[in-house]
């Protein structure tokens, strides 16, 4: 991605933050984005797996936020709290800003810094960051726990770098699905273009090869 495209992703994320009605959550989110702007613009999302490029973390966050918002809007009868969805999506991977080095096009580039990613995971680091910012505000404890649940439990399942406890709110389930869709499909963009119609291709997270369409009206 170009620097201009990465900057545009940042602007789009700020626009989504403006949709948050709760003034504490809106101000807190924007404050974190202001303080972490340079990190967000320069980090990869996940070393060797998805969005592994400069600004990949921010592009992934923007994609998850956009998808989470649209999913929530598709089910108005569920009375989803859009504030929690937006806040959680915008900050779900903020912990990675302290776990990864800025991306460099170097053969000996080391993405991870220290052992935080292995021993604590980005969900823990993200909760730590957001909790510190929320401590500046007069926010009810039980509600703050719900907010932090969006960060600490945004991943799909118990596993390495995964969730703390089982997900217990629909809002975080929406974020989790949007997150999983994006980190699963993005690696396909690096291999699908090299496959001919009717041929199979396989990307890193896929359990099996997939066929490329033979539809004569399908334009590559």
Structural shape: globular
Number of strands: 2
Sketch the major β-sheet. Answer: 2 strands, antiparallel
Mean pLDDT across the residues is 89
Please give the order of strands in the largest beta sheet.
1-2
Radius of gyration: 18 Å
Describe it for me?
34% of the residues are buried. The chain has a two-stranded antiparallel sheet with strand order 1-2. The protein starts with a helix and ends in a 9-residue tail after the last strand. It has helices spanning 3-17, 23-35, 37-42, 56-74, 82-91, 116-119, 122-134, 141-152, 170-185; strands spanning 200-201, 210-211. Strand 1 and strand 2 form a beta hairpin. It is mostly helical.
Secondary structure layout:
Layout: H1 3-17, H2 23-35, H3 37-42, H4 56-74, H5 82-91, H6 116-119, H7 122-134, H8 141-152, H9 170-185, E1 200-201, E2 210-211
Antiparallel strand pairs: 1-2
Helix pairs in contact: 1-4, 4-5, 4-9, 5-8, 5-9, 7-8
Tags for this model:
220 residues, single chain, mainly alpha, two-stranded antiparallel sheet, 9 helices, 2% strand
């Amino acid at each position: 991605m170009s620097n201009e495209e990465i900057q545009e992703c940042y602007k789009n994320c700020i626009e989504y933050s403006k949709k948050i009605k709760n003034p504490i959550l809106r101000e807190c989110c924007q404050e974190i984005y202001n303080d972490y702007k340079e990190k967000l613009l320069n980090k990869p999302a996940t070393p060797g797996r998805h969005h592994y490029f400069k600004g990949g973390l921010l592009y992934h966050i923007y994609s998850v936020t956009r998808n989470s918002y649209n999913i929530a809007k598709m089910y108005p009868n569920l009375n989803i709290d859009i504030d929690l969805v937006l806040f959680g999506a915008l900050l779900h991977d903020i912990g990675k800003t302290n776990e990864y080095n800025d991306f460099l096009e170097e053969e000996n580039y080391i993405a991870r810094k220290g052992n935080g990613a292995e021993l604590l995971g980005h969900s823990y680091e993200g909760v730590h960051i957001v909790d510190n910012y929320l401590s500046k505000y007069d926010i009810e404890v039980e509600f703050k726990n719900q907010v932090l649940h969006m960060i600490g439990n945004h991943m799909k399942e118990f596993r390495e770098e995964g969730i703390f406890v089982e997900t217990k709110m629909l809002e975080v389930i929406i974020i989790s699905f949007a997150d999983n869709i994006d980190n699963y499909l993005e690696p396909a963009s690096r291999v699908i273009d090299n496959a001919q119609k009717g041929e199979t291709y396989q990307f890193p997270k896929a359990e099996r090869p997939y066929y490329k369409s033979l539809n004569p009206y399908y334009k590559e």
